[in-house]
Design brief:
7-stranded antiparallel beta sheet; 7 helices; 524 residues
């Protein structure tokens, strides 16, 4: 009987046992990855299906991330809404206080108490403008409906007196080493009520030049001597922005500076042409006084010098169209050298009209605004004569609109929401002031209603986009999950079949030497 079992049949039994064992191992791996459609395709050796399912999986994960971003945006908008509801309560209480204080028969002591609470609530409303959510400002001043009148238009020269219209003039400590004379600084601070805006700075410092600095609170946001091309090397012109000729005769340069919280401060440089050899300050060397030269006739008989000597100019200084400063501003902006054509503001082939400069720009440097203050300070550091005109205006459009990516052209733009500040100078310390404050409050309450409408529209857009993304994620995950479920059923069945075969083969091997060759051949 023993000799009857051939080696060929034993080999068949061993092969079948190994094959079943391998098939069971493969099925086990596939069942372990039944929830991973990509891995199932890889194990099946189907490259096309593997790539397709990998792409679908990546898109699904991306959409899941976008969905979470949408949820953060919803929380952002809901926080804005909560703030507006709080602001509404503040304004309602302030209205009650103003109504009480508007009564002419109210005791002055009582009115003072009412005004103290009024001022405290007003400050609370202004403090809300600085609130953030996950590092993003909740409110944008420019999105408010009403704006107070902002005055930051004051021209001054080196003749300005300390204390004049709030101007501070003092000796400059630690001036650049090459400066001569008695360097001074001139500093003018203004409350502009907004933490963003546009600041137009016209400067004329003549051939020596000055340093011009703009600060928001204590933070420098613009500096004509902060750039990489400006340094203290011991030269008398170091760290000074120069214009051509005499500061009281030649052209001004203009910087149009724009800033907003969380954004890079930018500026446009606008070359100006008015200015020639006519001495616009007149004999008293002070711009804006009665002896300033007038365009009195067409013969060009205008004073040129401070001693009244007639000018030989044939063109009135305001009508001059020559860019006298070109060789200076092109170099100081780090744009190389002037091509010498002063009939054109920029070099041929390098037109910077309306160009947006930011960061390190030749001798100039800009810094990001921090949004923590609504006060601007213009500082001039000088050791010679100069003229300046500075004007502040709010930005024309909101800068805090948020674009939330939704994928497949489903992005959502959240319109900015703002808190008005028409109450900035309001008070209820007198009956008249209380009545005026009631008018301001009525406008601000109306503005709150408008902002809540904006938030409602933003939330509706987010709700639609979030639902769309969630459905896309669900369908993708469901499809991949169905593939995994089908694979699990298929591999479970295959595992059971191969397990039965393996057990049967093992049993045959154990009995191979006790059965006849004829019976074994039948079984095999």
């Amino acid at each position: 009987m023993l000799a009857a079992v051939t080696s060929a049949n034993l080999s068949k039994l061993n092969y079948r046992s190994g094959s079943s064992s391998h098939a069971m191992q493969t099925s086990t791996r596939k069942m372990l990855f039944a929830g991973n459609a990509q891995e199932i395709a890889r194990l099946n050796g189907d490259a096309g299906t593997f790539l397709s399912r990998t792409r679908i999986g990546a898109e699904t994960r991306s959409k899941s991330t976008l969905s979470r971003s949408m949820q953060n945006a919803v929380s952002y908008a809901q926080t804005q809404e909560a703030g507006m509801r709080k602001l509404e309560s503040i304004y309602n209480r302030m209205t009650q206080l103003a109504s009480l204080a508007a009564d002419p028969f109210v005791d002055e002591g009582v009115r003072a108490q009412l005004n103290a609470e009024f001022q405290s609530l007003k400050q609370d409303s202004f403090d809300m403008r600085k609130e953030t959510f996950m590092g993003n400002f909740l409110y944008d001043d420019m999105a408010a409906k009403y704006f107070p009148v902002v005055d930051f238009g004051q021209a001054f020269t080196d003749k300005a007196v300390d204390g004049q219209d709030g101007l501070e003039r003092k000796n400059l400590a630690n001036p650049p080493s090459g400066w001569t004379g008695a360097p001074e600084y001139y500093q003018l601070e203004k409350e502009v009520h907004f933490n963003s805006g546009k600041f137009v700075l016209d400067i004329n410092g003549g051939g020596t030049g000055e340093r011009y600095i703009l600060k928001q609170g204590t933070q420098i946001i613009f500096d004509t001597a902060g750039g990489p091309d400006s340094s203290d090397s011991g030269n008398k012109h170091d760290m000074q922005w120069a214009t051509g000729g005499n500061a009281y005769t030649q052209d001004f340069d203009r910087f149009e500076i724009e800033y907003a919280p969380g954004q890079a401060t930018t500026f446009k440089f606008v070359p100006l042409t008015p200015g020639n050899s006519i001495y616009v300050a007149g004999p008293d060397e002070t711009v804006g006084t009665a002896d300033d030269p007038k365009k009195s006739d067409g013969a060009g008989n205008w004073p040129k010098n401070k001693n009244g000597t007639p000018s030989t100019e044939t063109v009135w200084w305001e009508d001059d169209v020559t860019y006298d400063n070109k060789d200076l501003y092109v170099t100081q902006l780090g744009l190389g050298s002037s091509d010498g054509d002063e009939s054109q503001p920029w070099n041929l082939g390098d037109d910077r009209t309306n160009h947006i400069f930011s960061g390190d720009v030749g001798e100039v440097k800009t810094f990001e605004a921090n949004g923590q203050s609504t006060k601007l300070t213009l500082r001039v550091e000088s050791n010679t004569i100069f003229q300046i005109n500075a004007t502040y205006t709010p930005l024309e459009e909101a800068t805090n609109n948020k674009t939330i990516e939704g994928g497949s052209a489903n992005d959502v733009v959240l319109d900015a929401v703002g808190i008005g500040i028409t109450l900035i100078d309001s008070s209820i310390d007198t009956a008249d002031n209380a009545r005026n404050s009631l008018g301001f409050l009525a406008k601000e309450i109306e503005s709150v209603a408008q902002q809540l409408g904006t938030i409602g529209a933003n939330l509706s857009e987010l709700e639609i986009a979030t639902e769309r993304l969630s459905n896309q994620v669900y369908l993708s995950e469901k499809g991949l999950s169905r593939v995994g479920e089908d694979a699990l059923i298929e591999e479970s069945t295959r595992f059971a079949k191969e397990n039965i075969k393996s057990q049967a083969t093992t049993a045959l091997l154990s009995q191979a030497f006790s059965v006849s060759e004829k019976v074994l051949q039948v079984i095999l």
